[in-house]
Amino acid sequence: MIRGRAWLFGDDVDTDVIIPGKYLRTKDLRLLADHVMEGLDSEFASKVGRGDLIVAGRNFGCGSSREQAPLALREAGISCIVARSFARIFFRNAINVGLAVVEADVDCKEGDIVEVDLSRGLVNVGERSFQGTKIPAFLLDILQHGGLVAHRRLEAAASHGDEDGMGRSP
User: Per-residue pLDDT tens for 139-151?
Assistant: First the structure.
């Protein structure tokens, strides 16, 4: 179960406003986090807290295929994005970097506490529940392992009898 404070954004939030292009040359994830959502709210990075969620409208993450957009959100502390719909490449990039995403049409106010059950696709806001799209089991596995790279390392380690992924057997 993911639980956090909601930050609201509308439709068609594109990757250019999630992380402006002038910051894409860095590999410093903290710098990305410091400028996340700058295109819509220049104060967002200083207000967002670890574990907070974004609740958005349609087509979240449209625009370019930059992986830095979900990385910046994750590094800023966002634990999950709930949106009516996602741009397909953003959705998969988010899963690949270990950022939970759920498609659901949720009605809430900024600051509301939102709970997300990824395995059921269920989003709760207070006493109200919103049924979203369930994430397939194979994508849940990737998220639970912290992203695609960590997931593949664990798979490779398991196939070689190295259960902890560090070259050691139990």
Answer: 999 999 888 877 7
| Interatomic CA distance for residues 169 and 149, integer angstroms | 20
* CATH at 106: 3.20.19.10
Residue 124 falls within a domain, yes or no? Answer: yes
Contact status, residue 129 vs residue 103, Cβ threshold 8 Å: no
What total of structural domains would you count in the chain?
1
Q: What is the mean pLDDT of residues 98-120?
A: 97
The gap between the terminal CA atoms of the chain, to the nearest Å, is: 29
CA distance 86 to 103: 7
Helix (H) or strand (E) run with residue 15 in it? helix 15-18
Q: Output the pTM of the full model.
A: 0.88
Give the torsion through C-alpha atoms of 116, 81, 152, 167, to 10 deg: -70
- Rounded Cα distance, 66 and 125, in Å: 31
Domain with 108 in it? 2-135
Establish if 167 belongs to a structural domain. Answer: no
Query: What distance in Å separates the CA atoms of residue 139 and residue 145, rounded to the nearest whole number?
Result: 10
- Asked whether residue 123 is assigned to any structural domain, the reply reads yes
Q: What is the mean pLDDT of the chain?
A: 91
Q: What angle do CA 5, 107, 86 make, to 5 degrees?
A: 85
